Amino acid sequence: PYIYDGRPYYKVESTTKVMPQQMYEDRLRQRDSLRFSWEDDVNKDLTVDDLDEEMILDLIRAGVRCGRIPEGIQNKSVIEILNRLKLTSDGYIKNAGAVLFIKDTNCYPQFLLRMARFRGKDKRVFIDNRRSEGNIFKLLSDARDFLFKHLNMSGQFDGHLQRRESLSVPYEALREALLNAFAHRQYRYVGGSVSVGIYDDRVEIRNS
Length: 208
Description:
By secondary structure, the protein is of the alpha+beta class.
């Protein structure tokens, strides 16, 4: 932004205009994304008790089983695990820790998933319309249940006469899209959400 007399300005074609505050803050964040990362900000009101301890330990056990996390971390306390995962700063829990593990999302209204099954190929009529609140793992689970409820299931037998069932859209692809939607959205804005829309001919996954 161009600054004159303490105020930011920007050009619209041949006209110079005062830059709105929100636009100015967004430009600053884009210029220095790490310094202004919402995920790295701490929430001084959060404690370990606000996080789902069993979910944290399940994640560590799963990480150890697949070789992504050192086995020794399983013997650490929850706060030590959070420190090792860089989800704390100066003893406080970062917003990133809340996104992953918080139990009660009252102070984070943006931890939201909207889901709808529409009849046809547009949004005029919906068959099912739901919303879910929670951390990323809960929202991912709720999205999975919704997809399995509304997408067509097909089955085939393999060479050992075992039936293998699959969705009309491969769940591996849907899961990857969902994870990207949760991981790369703008959590700073409390009005945002991730949405899943199922139509007769497609699935749309969007984020803020």
